[in-house]
């Protein structure tokens, strides 16, 4: 049972509750979201408050411990921030609850603080990529700089795929660290760790954070980039009414630069 207080539950409900629904989830996407986080929300044990999505969420945080609840709420907050406008005040309030549940300090940078960090001096040669791959990465970085103001959607996709490529390279050079991490991508049926080429960007980000290669800020905003990149499918973009501007592209570009800086020990 989590240690959520009544006032904390009220804060969470104000952000997530949509009159029995949770955010914009359908039954299918609600189930998929929880499964991505290792939970089958439609088992009978989460039905004691009622069958609606918000009642199942209530049952979840009543039954599960602080760590399990905190991790799920952290993922749910990240999702909320990519599907609708969440005020800084609401975001901070929910993040404070998550930090308490996970017993971690609240030292994340605000979006404004994150965007103001100067990464202009990063040197990608310190990634120790092979020559041909480094050439491709440099070409992409050059193209991203051009597309941020001229084609923000293209910039977002380039940032996401470039980050994924770099993290895959890092994983390939550190297979033991990545494979033995708690967040390592595993086959749902066998529990066997998947080959790196079958890992998602989200899984690469989570493990890179777990083993200390990237900071909490980059994990947080990296998942935002991951969610942005999901709109590469036009129908998904239409369904979510996602219309990126150059500000969104700048966030994605900052995530990529920050990740490179962390991975090379430059910040």
Molecular structure report:
With 267 residues, the protein is mostly helical. The chain has helices spanning 6-16, 27-36, 53-63, 66-83, 88-102, 111-115, 131-150, 152-173, 175-179, 201-210, 216-229, 234-240, 246-263, and strands at 17-18, 21-22. The chain has a two-stranded antiparallel ribbon with strand order 1-2. The termini are far apart. 31% of the residues are buried. The model has no long low-confidence stretch (mean pLDDT 90).
Structural topology:
Elements: H1 6-16, E1 17-18, E2 21-22, H2 27-36, H3 53-63, H4 66-83, H5 88-102, H6 111-115, H7 131-150, H8 152-173, H9 175-179, H10 201-210, H11 216-229, H12 234-240, H13 246-263
Antiparallel strand pairs: 1-2
Helix pairs in contact: 1-5, 4-5, 4-11, 7-8, 7-13, 8-10, 8-11, 8-13, 10-11, 11-13
Order of helices and strands: HEEHHHHHHHHHHHH
Using only C-alpha atoms, the radius of gyration works out to 19 Å
Average pLDDT rating? 90
User: Uncertain runs with pLDDT below 50, 5 residues or more?
Assistant: none
Number of contiguous helices: 13
Beginning-to-end CA distance, first to last residue: 39 Å
The fraction of residues in strands falls at: under 5%
Helix content: 55-70%
Report on the biggest sheet: 2 strands, antiparallel
Q: Shape, please?
A: globular
Spatially, the strands of the biggest sheet line up as 1-2
Structural class: mainly alpha
DSSP strand tally: 2
Key words describing this protein structure:
single chain; 267 residues; mainly alpha; two-stranded antiparallel ribbon; 1% strand; globular
């Amino acid at each position: 049972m989590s240690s959520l207080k009544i006032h904390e539950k009220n804060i969470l409900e104000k952000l997530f509750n949509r009159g029995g629904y949770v955010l914009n989830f359908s039954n299918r996407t609600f189930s998929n979201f929880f499964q991505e986080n290792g939970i089958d929300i439609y088992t009978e044990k989460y039905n004691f408050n009622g069958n609606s999505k918000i009642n199942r969420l209530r049952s979840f945080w009543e039954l599960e411990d602080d760590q399990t609840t905190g991790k799920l709420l952290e993922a749910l907050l990240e999702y909320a921030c990519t599907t609708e406008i969440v005020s800084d005040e609401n975001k901070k309030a929910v993040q404070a609850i998550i930090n308490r549940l996970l017993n971690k300090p609240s030292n994340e940078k605000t979006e404004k603080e994150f965007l103001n960090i100067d990464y202009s001096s990063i040197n990608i040669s310190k990634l120790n990529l092979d020559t041909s791959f480094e050439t491709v990465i440099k070409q992409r970085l050059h193209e991203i700089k051009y597309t941020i103001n001229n084609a923000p959607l293209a910039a977002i996709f380039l940032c996401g795929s470039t980050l994924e490529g770099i993290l895959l390279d890092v994983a390939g050079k550190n297979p033991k660290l990545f494979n033995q991490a708690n967040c390592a991508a595993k086959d749902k049926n066998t529990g066997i760790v998947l080959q790196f080429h079958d890992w998602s960007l989200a899984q690469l980000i989570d493990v890179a954070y777990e083993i200390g290669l990237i900071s909490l800020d980059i994990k947080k905003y990296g998942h935002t980039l991951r969610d942005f990149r999901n709109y590469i499918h036009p129908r998904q973009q239409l369904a979510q009414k996602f219309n990126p501007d150059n500000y969104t592209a700048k966030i994605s570009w900052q995530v990529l630069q920050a990740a490179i800086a962390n991975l090379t020990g430059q910040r």
